[in-house]
Fold these 2 entries.
Entry 1:
Amino acid sequence: AQSVTQPDIHITVSEGASLELRCNYSYGATPYLFWYVQSPGQGLQLLLKYFSGDTLVQGIKGFEAEFKRSQSSFNLRKPSVHWSDAAEYFCAVGYARTDSWGKLQFGAGTQVVVTP
Amino acid sequence: GAVVSQHPSRVICKSGTSVKIECRSLDFQATTMFWYRQFPKQSLMLMATSNEGSKATYEQGVEKDKFLINHASLTLSTLTVTSAHPEDSSFYICSARGVALSGANVLTFGAGSRLTVL
């Protein structure tokens, strides 16, 4: 069975500082990996995704993530956070099999707080 | 492109009544839709997978008679919470999987529906 772990429940970062959110997955084959952001009371916004190819993925809002097969990780990074980046961030893993593509398992989420 | 509309965004109902939530793909055909629920300050949990024209597949522990899912067309899936109780209060989010006009595979989430059962 696949699983995804976000070790950090809560992260506080100063505006302008760098941010890294951790995500580890367990899956028998190469997974599809996603990072979503959710503001309070809102739906999900896709930041970036990895299916195959280049292991460094660029997303929206200045975010990037790196797929490391050897570490079963897909960590999200941003060089300089803005106050508007305060939100809940979810890592998700999806099945690569065609019939189950799109069925996602989400991590517990990481709450990011940005201080002035 | 690849927009999913979810309606209503918020609904309040009395205990014992039924509530229907709609999930529509606006500019692509969604062969499969997924329904998730999210309790406050928790993650999203998959409830069921619905394929157009067939019965939904429910995840373990999800009562199929309580959460009725219909996917009658390639652009619409509905989730009906029957005989709702306060413990059903949650944020329900759908996602749709399909092929855009460009030919690319798409997976898009709706904005979610906040259900409060009094």
Note: The two ends of chain A are 41 Å apart (CA to CA).
Entry 2:
Amino acid sequence: DAGITQSPRHKVTETGTPVTLRCHQTENHRYMYWYRQDPGHGLRLIHYSYGVKDTDKGEVSDGYSVSRSKTEDFLLTLESATSSQTSVYFCAISEEGGTYGYTFGSGTRLTVV
Amino acid sequence: AQSVTQLDSQVPVFEEAPVELRCNYSSSVSVYLFWYVQYPNQGLQLLLKYLSGSTLVKGINGFEAEFNKSQTSFHLRKPSVHISDTAEYFCAVIKTSYDKVIFGPGTSLSVIP
């Protein structure tokens, strides 16, 4: 969707290195989310934000941190990448929580070798 | 705690045949319900949602879903599928508050020519 972009689209990194994924939105939505998608697990929430500098943990937050210094940007950082963090990462945005649905980005495929 | 069950992980169906993808949820409070579709190598896209009112909800691409409170179900249907409907379909639920969306594990729909 034009209102939300993720970068990079693909990344290969080595175990132990830090990695930052970026989510950028042009919709001025208050809520932003990071999910990971893995076969057999569906989508699992990593972290989310309900405003600038307001973030909270999801169900699989260990090993991840986030920052939101501007409404439009939500960064996900893997402090020290591990092979278990190989996954497809999706960012989503919503205007008023999840009540009216999310808009998803196209995803970032991360491979940790 | 809420949970979402999608009873079929894979559903093969012939082109122009009808299809039903099943979704059941568990919640002790009222909820909002959603279906999302994910085409290969893309993010999720909102297909339809139930917030209140009529229990039969119509969405994009000819899909519809029916909310059944007594059976805690929200099954997705289409009377005649096309090859282009081949995708992963996710049922999702959120409480009637600023809570986080819970996604089901997904159903892979394969339309056979």
Note: The first strand of chain B starts at residue 3 and ends at 5.
